[in-house]
Structure formats: C-alpha cells, structure tokens
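Deliverable D4.2, example record:
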Amino acid sequence: MQITSHPLTLEECFRDFNTRFPKNDPRRLLLGEFTGASQNPTITRWLNGKNNPTGGNKWRSIAFFSQLGYTIPQFVNIRPLYQRAIKLFALGVMDARTLAIDGFGFQGATPTDKMYQAFEYDRSILEEREPALRQFINQHAEDLEVAKQLFDEQYGAAKLPIAIEVVAPILTVVPTEVVAPLTSKPMLPKAPEKTKPKLSHDTILQSAAHLVQGLKPLLELIVSDAFTAEERAVLRELAGRDDIFKLSNVFDQLCSERARSQSNKQETKR
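Output generated by the structure prediction step:
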C-alpha cells in the first residue's frame, strides 16, 4: 500500500487508490460518486490502468485526488487561478459550461473544451479577460470553501494520512589518527563509532523537491484572501521572521545560477 504525499501522476493516483481500497471496500465507490462516471466498466478501467479519463472527468478526478491529499504535479504546477477554477466546477459550485463562458469568456460551440485545453497546457487567456476571471472566481470563494467542507464530510474517509518527510541531517565524518604516548605500549586503533550513512545528492534533491511540492499549495493558500493578515502574522511568529526572510533568499538563489552567484558575491563583500 502506498500512502504518501510524494508527487504522483493521475495514473499513479488511480493505481494507489485501487491498492488502498480493494473491490470489497465501500470507499472504492467514492470516486464514481464524485465524478459521476459508472463504476463498471469506466471506473474499473481507470483504476486498472486500462483507460484514462478525458475532458471534465479528467479534471474532476484530479480535483478528487487533490482534495484527498495527493500531490499531482499537473495540478499544483499550473497557475493558482486555474486550480481554483477547476475546483469550482469539480466540487459542484457551478457547471463547467457556466465557468467556461461567464468566467473565462470562451465562446463558440465548444467553450468547455477550450477551457480544458487552457488547464492542460496552463495556457494564458486574453490579458484583458484575466481580471474579470479573477473577480468571477473571487465572487464564489465562500461557496468554494463550503463545497470543500462538504467534500470532507462525504469523502473524507478516503483521505490520505498526513505524511511529512524530514531530511535527516548529514554527518560529515572526519577520520582522526590515534597516536599513542611515547612512553606507552603500542595502542590498537579504536573501533570507529557508528554514524548515520551520508545521504547522496540525488536523495537530497528528491527530498527537497517533495518538500517544495508539498509546501507550495499551503503557502499559496496562506497568502490568498482565504487567510487574514492576523493569521499570516501568526505564521511569521511561529516560523520566525528571520527564517522566512532567509528562506526567501534561498529560493531566490535556486531560481538561477546567476542569482546564486550574485548573492554569494554580496555575502563575500559583507
């Protein structure tokens, strides 16, 4: 059984859900209840990896797993405005066509298909349309929060346990010589003390990537209008203002090698 907050593709989420909830588990039926797809053969084929959902069912499935606690790169890597839009129709606040026409401003015979393509490729919409979309989504912010609470009540039994990974500290072992006093008998070297194995760079990079992927949606939510200024002040106090500032500098350096080089030069001058 794979219970993890590591990034998973949608196909991997189906596979994990299939493993966690075998055929005799009633929670297995929750995916079909949420998406509206038939349990047999549609849901069964999704879970067995024989078929993948498309269009609205794809994004409903992604929203379903996201609400259960899965981290799906295809979802968390698109702009937050689109993440909220997806959950508006996936959680039933409105239907997809209303969102595509009234929110995104898409017209023609297939406005929902155009919206799904925007999600798929994280495609920007017309510059003059984006403020209207943002306002439209903000108008339904309270409805979305209510829908999330209802989701937790109805589907919470299938949620992932909270999993937090912490990278173990790296121990640098410096060998030291054992030198016997001149007046003493020859001494045997002491048996080396057991130390934690040194983590490989690959392990460190993967762990850091997982932590960033998990932290990003939390911080985006905290800086949104869903949290108050007072609540953000509590976070600064809990985490430490200096540590948040230092973390910001570290992320700046990770953006590019040029930024890292400039930061190092500034540190050298101090």
